[in-house]
Model the fold of this input.
Amino acid sequence: MSKVEIAGLKEVLKDTLEVLREEGIFQIETETVGFIDKAEEEYISTFSMDQKALSEKLLLEDMKLRLEELFSLMPKISTRKSYIEPDNIIETLRRLLPGHIKFLEGLIKKKDLLQKELSELMRYKNFMDAIEPIIGGVEKTEEIDFIGLTIKEPEAIPHIRRLLLKITDGRYELFTNRASDGTIAGVIVAEKVLSEIIRKTLSSERIPEIILPSTFEGLSFTERLKRLNERISEINRAVEEVNSEVNRFTLRWRPLYERTLEWIDERLSIMKATAHVFETRMCFIIYGWMPSDSVTTLSRRLTERFGGRVTLVEREIFEEDLERIPVMLKNPPYFQPFEIMVRILPLPKYGTFDPTPFIGIFFPLFFGMILGDSGYGLALLGLSIFTLKRFRKKKHVQDISKIMFVCSIYSIFFGILYGEFFGEVGHKLFGLEPICIERRTAVIPMLYFALAVGLFHVLIGLLLGIITGIKRKAKKEAIAKFIDILLIIATVTGVSALCGIIPERFVHPIITLTIILLPILLITGGLLAPLELIKSIGNIISYARIMAIGLTSVLLAFVANRLAGMTGNIIAGAIVAGLLHLVNIILGIFSPAIHSMRLHYVEFFSKFIESGGRRFEPFRKI
Amino acid sequence: MEKVLIAFAAALAIGLSALATAWAQSRIGSAGAGALAEKPELSGTVIILVAIPETMVILGFVIATIILTTK
Done:
């Protein structure tokens, strides 16, 4: 990373920022600390916008709000992309915008009214459909009145009958039928003189009466139904018309307005960036950080574009700058997907190790060692290829799929070594035999293997810690880590000698070595250093999970096959085995992934990573 | 009788460590969920914190396996 200062004449500030934005490799520094000497501070101040730029900013912000309002009124349909530069037509668009918003609001209001009427009519139609078959035979005369009502619960019917009996003295008929929307439609048939009191009682009891729209008054049931269907069709047609008009408008104008919004965002981001620019009487100054390998390219581009009016100078980085230098992860293509796992945690400090390559090597290895089944590996391989092809535009999904792809290859490889293909199915079907170890029975050898891998991994972590210490000129820390390595090796050798794995004659020299090294460890690493040593040994033992989780995975596969065999039926057995293996595959993705991640984050990273790095966030197009 | 004692010892090794892990993870998990609601960028740290007590049950499992397999 390089510390850079760009200076130029004020009149080309906007164009310079545009170039920086296009390049997308320059992080603007908002503070002047480390860039300006105390003596120079009085000549340099924060850049302030002139009246013209300020009013342009306000205008663009207002237009952005209006555009967002317009987009909220437009339907989400796919439209073409516009490549028109709004620079020259922005004023025309600004004048058109209020009219377009009003036009769309009018159409949407009209549609809302139509839909409200439609919903009312549909309610009435449901009622009519339910009631017509049961009152078709009732004689309709001048003296008889029909009162429609909706009853929500069937239990309310006896209550309504009691009320009607009380107020009409039995001179009524109540017909009910279930409507298609689940409610109960009812019609009270009574003399016209009783209508008013019935309506009042229903209202006081909060029983909703179905009131006919005025256009339907005086029509017979058949005529009402016919008129109702006609009106529903009319409304549906009108809604369709409004929809197509809105769609036509959207197809015509949305691309242009979307491009305009993009253009406004670009302009506003440049204007916002000017807040972090500094100025002298004649010039502007931009301080910032950029990758060292791009300095020459950017410098050349600025010279080509502005002649001598803008200049780029690379400044010297001092020790006090180390805390502020942004950190950028830069890895070869194979390791790039694994950066996602580093970004979950706070970034490492500038000048320390980027752990991505180590994750790229060890994460799939641990994953494969834990899952270790060719069948599950193949299933995972298929899934990763599917997600890779299906979600081409989603970077996160692509990264995770690529990690999954590598992990599946390792799983297949270890599956062949362990002789596992959906548990022991491979052995039964193809005579697959373990090449090096059978996990289900060789528990203790697997434990030794896992611990050996842990020892190797933790020692690499400590070695990286030594290099980091030397780079940071923290000699004591580096020596303490070196002694940690020696003591861990001594402890492992001692335990191996005591367990009879190596000859017992090694025990005495190891004890002597430990006695010599411990005081040095206390001097270099402080009082807590022995505790760190014990923690490191605990970390190595923690790698036993590679064996433990792997064993549970293989036993689950074994159980799935045993249960399938116990059904005594090929189809039922296949279903049981399929379901249990599916559960195991799902567990097989999550469990090894989580545990491998943890082995890195807790056991490995703690040996050399110093977190607290500042993320590199260049000024670029969003 | 010896077999019963061996099985009981293995069960204690895995059972007690599993209970301890479960208790620790429940406390860390609920606190972590609260922290994530406020600061989603802490997801990495929370994963680590939740995963730390798992070592207990893994070690319990290893001890139980050694008890059962050592003759």
Summary: The helical segments of chain B are 2-38, 43-51, 54-69. Chain B has a mean pLDDT of 87. Chain B has three helices and no strands.
